[in-house]
Amino acid sequence: MDKKSNSRITRKTIGGTVYVVESLVSDTAKETVYDKVMRLVTSDASCRIKLSDSSGLCPKIYSTSSK
C-alpha cells in the first residue's frame, strides 16, 4: 500500500477477526463524512416509514428503554 498523507489505516479485532479499514480523504468531496452519514440515516429512516405504511414489509422496532 502506498502511504499517503491523506490516508488512514485502522485495525480492529472483533471476536478473533482482525478488520483493516483504509480511509482516504478526497480533494473533490462535496460533503463531509458527518453530512453523508446523516443523509444516509435520514434516507433510510424515511424509507422504513414508507415501507411500513404501504406494504407491512418493515418489522416494528420495539425499544427496551423506559419512557
Description:
The chain has 67 residues and is an alpha+beta fold. The protein has one domain. Helix content is 33%, strand content 24%. It contains 1 helix and 2 strands; from the N terminus they run E-E-H. The protein has one helix spanning 33-54; strands at residues 7-14, 17-24. It has a two-stranded antiparallel ribbon. Strand 1 and strand 2 (17-24) form a beta hairpin. The longest helix has 22 residues, at 33-54. The N and C termini lie far apart (50 Å).
Defining key terms:
67 residues; alpha+beta
List the helices and strands and how they pair.
Layout: E1 7-14, E2 17-24, H1 33-54
Antiparallel strand pairs: 1-2
Question: How would you briefly describe this protein structure?
Answer:
The protein is an alpha+beta fold and 67 residues long. It has one helix at 33-54; strands spanning 7-14, 17-24. Strands 1-2 form a two-stranded antiparallel ribbon.
